[in-house]
Amino acid sequence: MPTDILLEARNLVKDFGSTRVVDGVSLQLVRGETLGLVGESGSGKSTVARLLLRLIEPTSGEIIYNSTKTDGRSYNLPDINPREMRHLRRKLSIVFQDPYAALNPRMTIRQTLTEPFIIHRERPPQGLNARLDELLAEVGLEPSALSRYPHEFSGGQRQRINIARALALRPELLVLDEPVSALDVSVGAQVINLLRDLQQRYGLTYLFISHSMPLVRYLCHRVAVMQRGRIVEAGTWSEVCESPRERYTQQLLAATPELQPLDLRS
Prior knowledge:
Layout: E1 5-16, E2 19-30, E3 34-38, H1 45-52, E4 60-66, E5 74-76, H2 82-88, E6 92-95, H3 109-119, H4 128-138, H5 155-167, E7 173-177, H6 185-202, E8 205-210, H7 213-219, E9 222-227, E10 230-236, H8 237-242, H9 247-254
Helix pairs in contact: 5-6
């Protein structure tokens, strides 16, 4: 049983009207590791992601965040007040699926990357301009990008900008909601390699939501399989995907013919 837990969901439930979308989900995000959350469309993966960051409110259940960089305390996110949640949001971030919709077309990249510092009233120790240059360098873009607008970039470059924005306040947890599904294979592989390098460099914790078993195999330390709002199987890759117990997991694997090891760096 992992002991260094950054965030833990306990019996999480979310109802939208009479429909139960998330039904008793429990999971653990181990500090510095990646948990892959897989399942077919409509299984509740993205709803779980938004619940964990309290972008939407759970119907019931607990979300325990064990902070170290903030103040070393533990919090049940649904119970804390808006001021405390605002304080914690600096350490919890998300990269959305669509790199085109996630950026405001009327804002320059400088304005986009500056926004988190304005919202959280935080001044980088090295100065804002130096931090913006640093963020772009971390995702492989030149400082000249700051004066440009989103439409001037490719999809892969836009997703790198989204990642830079998510990293602005040095979060502990990054939720990656199908971050490469809107990109072609080669560009997506570059973004996945970037995410892996950033994790190794900064000790980030990832929740990686995907329907691609090869990507989950490459990036994730552990896997949780969702079906109809429930986690039906969880464990390491070998436990879940080499010896699946559930018929649903077997069907997901059977629908992925390219499950040989991938060399994403080639």
